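A note from the maintainers: we've had questions about how concatenated examples are separated. There is no special marker in the raw files; a new sequence line simply starts the next protein. For clarity in this README we add a label.
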Amino acid sequence: MGWPDDPETTAGLVPTPRSTEHENDMDGETELLLAAHGGDVQAAHLLGRHFAQHGDRSAARHWWERAAAAGNLDSAYNLGIWHEKHGTPAEAARWYELAANAGDVEAAVNLATLLLEQHGDIPAARRWFETAAEAGSRAAARRLALLCEDGGEVKAAVEWHRRAATDGDLASAHDLGFLAYASGEEDEALRWWESAAGNGHADAAYHLGLFLQANLDPEGAEAFFRLAARNEHPGAASQLGGIALSLGDLRTARAWFERAACTGRVGDQRTAGFVCVEMSDAQGAGHWFSRAAASGDPEAAFNFGLLLIAEHSDLQGGQHWFRQAAQAGHHRAAVELAALLSAAGFSREAERWLSDPPSPPWSRTTEPELVARAELAAAAVARRGGATLRIADLTEILGTWDLVTRPLRDRTDVTTWLAEQSGLPSGAVEHLAAVRAALLRPGGAPWPTPAEIEHVLVTARALRSALPP
């Protein structure tokens, strides 16, 4: 590996050694040697830099050690980098600490990062991050905020994020939006997301678009989706594809969905396939259905099977993809597979698929504002390595409640009515209502866990079965 001055070898590894404003004052090796041997501390530092740039690492270390021992903080900082790069973190920490104790803010940040990432020493790392943050380091304030979030110290996390965001950290502004949203402070969430989005943060623009969509402002939502898409946000491209599709503009919808699909988003690959079908482009549909099917999407696998049979009379290929989809729980694929198997003389396997086909999935169109709430909730839960909630599951929960309560005029005691009409335990219906409320009105209760979602989905499906529309 090269010396840290090479940007290709330092990206994401360790910081770059520091020069000083006096570096150009002494640029000849002979003059530097004479001055350094004469006790000039600045010359010793620059000599170390000179040898580092020419690949003589041991000489660089020697002169930086002489300068650091005489009080040169830049040399101490560079020695920290030197040892961090060369696998001696204990020595790196010693030199960083020497510089940090003398007030070097960057050294304090590097020391804290080293203690956290190399040693897992959270208390010590936090002390040095606090030292640096109090001295004005935006990076340290953000790292402190994240440590506080991980430790469940939400109030402290908000304060440190606020410091970083006020100093221009867009990621912290975005995070403040989510912390406010999760606490039910929607005006505060709007303020921070607007601030970050206006300065080019694509995720903030996208989540602000979802927020506006959830609050029945489709025009405002579209404006921020377009802003996010200009910064190559694939989710925003997908949203814009959906908007174009709702307007019947297949060409524009296809362009947006394909833009999202090219980033590997399986759902958008499938949807791009459907748009191609609508445009009578069997080749394009096959391309996108096959990509999504190869990634394990059962709906795409089923439709790819249909396409192979309809366009190419490929019964073997169709049977293969029907089986893939059926094994993943696709109801129609199981029925079509059984028909193919029966026609081919495999009646026993056909009977097996017909006797116990997978249950049909939730396929009803859900209001855009409910889908947006589901996606915001899933994103909020997933922050900082949290649990993964499937947007489709959250959408099914919200959509089911909307569906089964439509006949009601008086909404004062919905859960009792649903329990009585369906025969389900009132506790199960109340749990569904509580999870729904947490998704729609954050801040009143913790976000649901994956186990809660699985439990509530059972209730939602039982409700749909007992109270068909």
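[label: protein 2]
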Amino acid sequence: MKLAKSATFVLLAMLVSAIVQAEPPQLRDRQTGKYLGNLSSNPYDANSVGNPYGKYGSEYFSDSINNPYGKYGSRYSNDSPNNPYATNPPAIHGGDGSGY
């Protein structure tokens, strides 16, 4: 009985570890492939677009989708996800490099 509980705990720990280590999807410029941050709401991830203090979540960084005056954040830019008529909004790629 004690051995079964230990094995269950080990399997559960391995599963949780695999889930925690999974990489979030990334945003990339469709034409150039330029990395634009992790598509995540995690405020502690330094590369998350959801971290207002990080490079890619800042409203001041030129390549942030949260910068209303930048190429990727303006509602008028052809490269912005904030422009409903944009023809080159960022693409979402899986954490393993695959595109969606």
